[in-house]
Amino acid sequence: MSPSLPATDVAAQRRQRGRWLDARLAPFRGRHRAASACVVLAGWLWIPQAAAIAWALDAVLFAHAGLAALPAPLGLLAATLIARPLLTWIGQRLQADVVESVLAQLRVGLARAAADRGPLWLRGQRSGALVALSTGHVDATAGYYGGYLTARAETMAVPLAILVAVFAVDWIVGLVLLLTAPLAPFFMMLIGMGAENAGRRQLAALARAGAHFTDRLRGLDLIRVYGRGEAELAQVGEATETIRVRSMRVLRIAFLSSAVLEFFASVSVALVAVYFGFTYLGMLDLRGETLSLSTGLFCLLLAPEFYAPMRRLAANYHDRANALAAVAEIEATFDGLPEIEAEPLASRRMDADLAEGQAVPRPSASPAPEPPGDQGAKAHSPARPLVSVANVVLRHPGARAPALQDVSLQVPAGGRLALVGPSGSGKSTLLDALAGWLPAETGRIDVAPGTRIALASQRPWLFHGSIADNLRIGAPDASDVELAEAARVAQVTRFAARLPDGLDTPIGERGFGLSGGEARRVALARALLRRPRLLLLDEPTAFLDPGTEADLLAALDAYLDECTVIVATHSDAVVAWAGASWQVPSPTGAAP
Ligand SMILES: Nc1ncnc2c1ncn2[C@@H]1O[C@H](COP(=O)(O)OP(=O)(O)OP(=O)(O)O)[C@@H](O)[C@H]1O
């Protein structure tokens, strides 16, 4: 949220964020309504309960009606004593269930939104900050769904019913309640102004500190080597102190506002008590008729409960501000409010190393060049190019100049092409675009529809788990034989055979325990295991000795069959293996 926005825009933004928060509740609306209904019903039942208490005491103490008059009020009292806690318990259980469901859906939705932004967007994010989004920020909305919404339903229904009941027996007390009621919304408005900003600052500090801490943990070896331990510790200390100060600010607003409301509620109840006291003592006669004990007791019992829902709403009001602050931070990270569907994440693929199918955006108007005379040919027929790139300009998000200008090339199905050119000339960028990760600024990229694509990138991500687990990510249903075959072809077996448990040997995050070349071979095996129709390889032999490189290329030859391969490389052996090469043009557009 930009501080320079006009007030109307800020209000509109806040309304939009509120609607986004409420939309998350849609799949659980039924349970949420049932929970609110239970709480409201429990609130309403306080009226007959207070009436029963007042009625019973009046009968025993003043009317001296004897035990015969008691069964009716005591029966009503017993019924409400059982019903109210039961309804409250059911309401709270349902509410807790709704909160857990909404939060789980939000976490899944945010993870999916991050995955949908694509690997290039993800590479530009700080993982610690993304983790904070689905933990701290999502948790910050719990109070809104759990406390605020229920308290709001209660506030709309319960005080009104109490007011009607009180007016029915004593209009003066009714008037006192009516006149003091607007205090709560007034103070809530005051709280709302400061609480949301304080909440946003606290969440932003939390995300920054989380990201900082994760980054530093990852680079711990570097920090030690350069002797930066103490300085980094001081920075972590500073970040934590900022969180402490900002959290205290949020708490201060919450406590102050609650205290002010408690004060006014107590004063209002005291006013009612003083009025009854003076009336009973005969010092005040505003009613013009005698006041029975049951009327006074009934009103005195109801008065605190008149304010109770409003006090709860006020106490939960900063939860709403916190939730809006969390949504504002989510909006800033995703550059807009992400779509969140109520669909299990497991049904979608999120592997950043692998792309499937035809996912390449084509912004320009020119159609893909058709080879003459083969209009009726099938997508994978050798005559028709599987990959066609026409006059494409590629620019990284936020980059000043395009990484690649006016690229045109075609690769037939089953063909191989080596991309060659100096470091930084844009080979990896082109592979990213072919995988569908980077849209073309102009021009067209066409990959035959339904083509299964796999990309083994230069910096593959390996997860904590066994080598086999890492291979199976792209093809969870692959058999052991297929897995062993892919590992053999990618020359993974060569080093895995020396490890204690072979392919079942655990490796750490980011391939800890493997050399750079070994990690790349695991990524290659992972790509092969998917049995792609189009295999995109980024310097697959960069760290290999000539002998291993030759073995790898020979094994690939036998394994790949009809698979189309586009490989970025600096190796003459790989260029020779591919049989065709394409020189990446220099940034001026002229191929050397
Ligand atoms: N996310 C990014 N944002 C901006 N510029 C980028 C980004 N990633 C890469 N670049 C730039 O794009 C250009 C091409 O990079 P690319 O990684 O495609 O080169 P490459 O030919 O694959 O190099 P190498 O042979 O070293 O792997 C480089 O100038 C690089 O600095």
From TrEMBL:
The superkingdom listed in its UniProt entry is: Bacteria
Q: Which UniProt keywords apply?
A: ATP-binding, Membrane, Nucleotide-binding, Transmembrane, Transmembrane helix
Q: Give the SUPFAM superfamilies listed for this entry.
A: ABC transporter transmembrane region (SSF90123), P-loop containing nucleoside triphosphate hydrolases (SSF52540)
The ABC transporter domain is annotated at 387-587
Give the region (Disordered) as residue ranges.
356-381
One Pfam annotation reads ABC_tran
Q: Which GO terms describe its biological process?
A: cysteine transport
This protein's membrane topology, according to the annotation, is:
Multi-pass membrane protein
Compartment(s) of residence: Cell membrane
Which InterPro entries does the record cross-reference, listed alphabetically?
AAA+_ATPase, ABC1_TM_dom, ABC1_TM_sf, ABC_transporter-like_ATP-bd, ABC_transporter-like_CS, ABC_transptr_CydD, P-loop_NTPase, Type_1_exporter
Listed GO CC annotations: plasma membrane
Recorded GO terms, molecular function?
ABC-type transporter activity; ATP binding; ATP hydrolysis activity; ATPase-coupled lipid transmembrane transporter activity
Q: Where is the ABC transmembrane type-1 domain?
A: 34-322
Which segments cross the bilayer? Answer: 34-55, 61-83, 158-191, 253-278
**NCBIfam families attached to this UniProt entry:** CydD (TIGR02857)
Q: What is this protein called?
A: Thiol reductant ABC exporter subunit CydD
Q: Which organism is it from?
A: Luteimonas chenhongjianii
Query: What is the gene name?
Result: cydD
